[in-house]
TrEMBL record:
Residues 264-277 have a biased composition (Pro residues). It holds the Pfam family Cadherin. The lineage of its organism: Eukaryota, Metazoa, Chordata, Craniata, Vertebrata. The keyword Heme does not apply. Residues 53-133, 134-247 form the Cadherin domain. Its main location: membrane. It is found in: Membrane. Residues 1-21 form the signal peptide. This is Cadherin domain-containing protein. PROSITE patterns: CADHERIN_2. Keywords: Calcium, Membrane, Repeat, Signal. Residues 251-288 are annotated as: Disordered.
């Protein structure tokens, strides 16, 4: 409760004997700010005692209004008009309400002077929201000849907590079914963009598995207990051109090539004619 020192000095110099409370009562619509804190992470029983508002004994409180009383979130707070004791009646969500503002109206015992007290309740953020994927299931189809390191599919998640230490999170691959033998999946994260890309290293073989089911998890960095959620990714493997061509019928060594055209024998030249004047040989007669 603060009093302007100059005004107080003037009052004392004039010999007027007023207590600080009486001096404040003479200021109509005076504001005295008090601030309390409520933890969003409280998980005990309700209602619970929070603190006490300093109410001057010379005042009669006749009205308490504002957030937590007759404004949203309604019926969250209860303040005893005589003792000033504050009780919290239920949980509050920081993502909806960061500060609650109340006004306590009071008048003096002779009902002549009115004063107002402004009270703030600051809500302390807790790690109460896990990161949530924008899809519960993802699917994609890739060729078995896909090169390692190629991005296969992107995943995205969002954490609705307000503080950086509660809203930051990391991705991880929780399981792969069936378990690969000679390759592995991994996820590349993009900082500050809340998404990651699934990739792999090794060699895909559809003969071993025609699909893989991955469980991908997003875990925040909140304290005292990190929160997480997961999504399912199905990757289908289709046939690809990953084998060299092979001749099915090979040529046997020494065998004639069936593709060659057979050669025809060249015709023999007729014998040369005898020189002129040479008697011809008589042909032997055939006996009957």
């Amino acid at each position: 409760m603060e009093i302007n020192p100059r005004c107080l000095f003037m009052i004392l110099s004039l010999g007027v004997q007023l207590s600080p409370a009486e001096f404040l009562l003479r200021q109509k619509r005076n504001w005295i700010i008090q601030t309390f804190t409520i933890s969003e992470s409280y998980s005990g029983k309700f209602p619970y005692y929070l603190d006490r508002v300093d109410i001057d004994p010379n005042l009669n409180v006749f009205e308490i209004t504002g957030q937590g009383i007759n404004e949203e979130p309604r019926e969250l707070l209860e303040i005893n008009k005589k003792s000033g004791r504050v009780y919290v009646l239920g949980p509050v969500d920081y993502e909806k309400f960061q500060t609650l503002k109340l006004i306590i109206k009071a008048h003096s015992k002779n009902n002549q002077i009115l004063t107002q007290v402004g009270i703030n309740f600051e809500i302390i953020d807790a790690n109460d929201n896990p990161p949530i994927f924008n899809q519960t299931m993802y699917e994609t189809t890739i060729n078995e000849s896909t090169l390692q390191g190629t991005g296969l599919i992107n995943v995205t998640a969002t954490d609705h907590d307000s503080k950086e230490e509660n809203k930051n999170f990391i991705f991880s691959i929780d399981s792969v079914t069936p378990k690969p033998d000679d390759f592995e999946f991994f996820i590349n994260e993009v900082p500050n963009f809340n998404n990651g890309t699934i990739s792999f290293k090794g060699c895909l073989d559809r003969k071993k598995a025609d699909k893989y089911i991955l469980i991908v998890k997003a875990t925040d960095l909140g304290k005292p207990k990190p929160l997480s959620s997961s999504t399912t990714i199905t990757i289908y493997i289709e046939h690809g051109n990953r084998h060299r061509p092979v001749f099915m019928n090979q040529t046997v060594a020494g065998a004639p090539d069936s593709t060659e055209t057979p050669r025809r024998p060249s015709p023999q030249a007729p014998p040369p004619a005898p020189p002129e004047g040479t008697p011809r040989r008589s042909q032997p007669s055939q006996e009957t």
